[in-house]
Specification:
Elements (H helix, E strand, L loop, with lengths): L4 H17 L6 H13 L4 H16 L2 H5 L1 H132 L4 H29 L2 H5 L2 H16 L2 E6 L8 H22 L3 E9 L2 E8 L6 H6 L7 H11 L3 E7 L3 E9 L7
Parallel strand pairs: 1-2
Antiparallel strand pairs: 2-3, 3-5, 4-5
Helix pairs in contact: 1-2, 1-3, 2-5, 3-5, 5-6, 8-9, 9-11
The protein binds adenosine-5'-triphosphate and magnesium ion.
The site of adenosine-5'-triphosphate has 15 residues, from helix 9 and helix 11.
């Protein structure tokens, strides 16, 4: 398009000359037309100005121009201004569109920024929801586990409760049998003796005295049997004198009854334990000694109570025959409560119970319960 520049320059010169030469200047329309052509020819304001300048140089050399230079320069200026108008209009329109374009670009930029912010927010929300879902899933699994564990515990508890009830029944049967065999038999004996006493009143004083003495022995026997029951059920000495005297008293009974040698060495500070913990130790010793007497066929038992860091340890060791500890404890059909009861009692006060049994080495029952001398009751 720019190829048309020389041709346009020539036409511009001709048109300007005509405009300047005519009496009534009528070149405004021509100038605008040329302006349009310059613009559609792809030329800009500067090139139009150059065309105008060249034309002026050419015209300045001519005779007419030399005569009336001042007026002509003004009229040539008007011509140039007319030619510029189309270009100016377009430029103004272009500037306007450019401004609009810039405004749109700015609006677009703002929208894009808002969209990006929205997008970021959305991503955050998605992440938050995913984390929430994960937490809910984990929570569900956790509660399922807790549910299963609680069902298991409930089952265990029901089983234990049943065992306790049946052990209670066994114990009642045992007490009733012993009451019958020991106390009732003795009381029947006393009655028989009293009847004999009635008859013996007719006898001499010597026979009467002998009868009274034997009746007294029967009464003493039943008194001591009742005492023994009371001691085994809840030894008063444990509350009145303490754990060590209570253990000594119980050891004496078992030693005599089962023909066993029992030795006790004890840390005196054990008496500062609260009464609940002392009873736990007493019951463990009681059950362990009963088991030795019933099952171990032992000849000697060594009992010890010592202080270890943070706890008190009690051991009951016998030299009798051993038994399979894990199998006995986990046996499904295990109806025995002794070992389980010991463990329950010790664990109830935050302690731990271990049992070791090996052929040729007898059995050791070890209970450790928390003990802190400064806080002990
Ligand atoms: N010191 C021991 N020496 C040898 N065997 C033992 C000893 N202590 C326990 N046992 C074995 O472990 C089993 C379980 O003992 P556990 O005290 O739980 O029940 P039990 O004494 O048979 O009955 P109970 O419920 O009346 O105590 C006993 O039957 C016995 O076979
Ligand atoms: Mg037992």
């Amino acid at each position: 398009m720019k190829k048309r520049a020389p041709e346009l320059a020539q036409r511009y010169l001709t048109a300007l000359r005509e405009h300047l030469g005519s009496r009534r200047p009528s070149g405004a329309a021509t100038a605008r037309e040329l302006g349009h052509e310059v613009m559609s020819g792809g030329l800009n304001t500067l090139e139009l100005a150059r065309m105008h300048e060249q034309a002026l140089v050419v015209l300045a050399a001519s005779h007419d121009f030399a005569n009336a230079r001042n007026g002509m320069i003004r009229r040539a200026g008007n011509f140039f201004t007319e030619a510029l108008i189309p270009l100016e209009k377009v430029q103004r329109a272009t500037r306007h569109s450019l401004k609009q374009l810039q405004q749109r670009a700015e609006t677009l930029r703002l929208h894009t920024a808002a969209l990006a912010a929205g997008n970021r927010q959305l991503k955050r929300e998605v992440r938050r929801r995913k984390a929430g879902e994960e937490a809910v899933k984990k929570g569900k699994a956790h509660y399922q586990l807790l549910f299963v564990q609680s069902q298991f515990m409930q089952k265990k508890l029901r089983h234990l409760a049943r065992q306790i009830l049946s052990a209670q029944e066994d114990e009642r049967r045992e007490i009733s049998r012993e009451l019958h065999d020991e106390v009732v038999q003795t009381l029947v004996g006393i009655n028989v003796e009293l009847a004999a006493l009635g008859r013996a009143a007719a006898m001499g004083i010597g026979a009467l005295r002998a009868k009274i003495a034997s009746t007294q022995r029967l009464v003493e026997k039943s008194v001591s049997a009742v005492h023994q029951f009371a001691r085994e059920l809840r030894p008063a000495v444990l509350d009145d004198l303490g754990l060590i005297p209570a253990l000594h008293a119980y050891m004496k009974i078992v030693a005599a009854r089962k023909k066993l040698k029992i030795r006790l060495t004890a840390f005196a500070g054990v008496e500062t334990l609260d009464s609940a913990r002392r009873i736990v130790l007493y019951r463990v010793a009681q059950e362990a000694l009963t088991n030795v007497g019933r099952h171990a066929q032992a000849s000697a038992v060594a009992m010890s109570i010592v202080a270890i860091p943070g706890a008190i340890r009690m051991e009951v060791h016998d030299n009798g025959k051993s038994f399979q500890v894990p199998q006995t404890l986990s046996a499904k059909a295990n109806k025995r409560l002794g070992l389980l009861g010991m463990r329950e009692r010790v664990e109830m006060v935050g302690g731990a119970l271990t049992i070791e049994s090996a052929p040729g080495q007898g059995t050791t029952v070890r209970a450790e319960i928390p003990f802190c001398p400064t806080t002990a009751a």
